[in-house]
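User: Okay, second chain of the day. Same drill as before: sequence in, structure tokens out.
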Amino acid sequence: MYVWAPRIRNYWWRSTPGCCSTGTAVFLNLIPEHLRFKDYSNQIIQAWNWSFFPLDLAAALTVFLGAHLTRVGSRIGDLVLTVGLMLTFCAGFMAISFWSFYRDFDPLWWGPNALLMIIPALALGSMVCRRLETAENQS
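Assistant: Same drill. Structure tokens below.
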């Protein structure tokens, strides 16, 4: 059973509501114009942006479910958590890839998406190391 490293867990519980609040701000058109990404009002870019909603929702729900299942000792908790972390990584990776191909670098938009890749990678690395450590201790 995986136990989250405290820093990763704390970040996760802060960042997921942040992603949801960003989506809400975009939906309600609350982001000031000077903070919007390139071509914000372009309908194709808006459709691309909203195409992440199902992925973000699936990622958040599976991570929360996986964390809960792991905490209560369920045998499938680690698997569900891994799926959620991979979905999160993919969401960040897709966004960074798009902005790279679009040749638009804005730290305000790249930073959070880079964190969506870094945190799951750290969490998965921690999970693998813990499993290897457990396996070594059992042999």
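The mean pLDDT is 83.

User: Thanks, on to the next one.
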